[in-house]
Amino acid sequence: MTILFGIILILHFVGLASLLGGVLVQVKDNAAGKGRIVAAMIHGALTQLVTGILLVGLIEMGSGDVNTAKIATKLAVVIVITVLVFVYRKKSPLASWVVWLIGALTLANIAIAVLWH
């Protein structure tokens, strides 16, 4: 079970890297009025959503304590990110605020994960 948890946690980090990396790549294009949702952002958001749910399930199966308020907050944020990514994936160029909002929500989710004990 420990190996499975570790593999899913690594995939969760890969999803984070993909999502945040996609946002950072688009910052320059976004400033030039050519921003768009790239595949890395779509795959990263979905990976974060699925692996996050799997991680919570594995913790619960192992009779670990889960901070449900923290998890609910993180789940709400990643759902908003995923919805934004899917709603705006075919729109090019994007409104400037979309890329910034996705980036800000991604950073907020990182802060919640690290700082909320």
Present the secondary structure layout.
Elements: H1 2-31, H2 39-61, H3 68-87, H4 96-115
Helix pairs in contact: 1-2, 1-4, 2-3, 3-4
Relevant terms:
mainly alpha; 117 residues
Overall description:
- This protein has one domain (2-115).
- Helices cover 79% and strands 0% of the residues.
- It has 4 helices and no strands.
- The protein is elongated and about 50 Å long.
- The model has no long low-confidence stretch (mean pLDDT 95).
The overall pLDDT average reads 95
How would you name the oligomeric state of the polypeptide chains in this document? single chain
Radius of gyration equals 15 Å
Overall, the morphology is: elongated
**Helix percent band:** over 70%
Total number of beta strands: 0
Low-confidence segments, given as residue ranges, are none
Please report which band the strand proportion falls in: under 5%, 5-15%, 15-25%, 25-35%, 35-45% or over 45%. Answer: under 5%
> Any idea how many domains?
1
Can you summarize this structure?
This protein has 117 residues and is mainly alpha-helical.
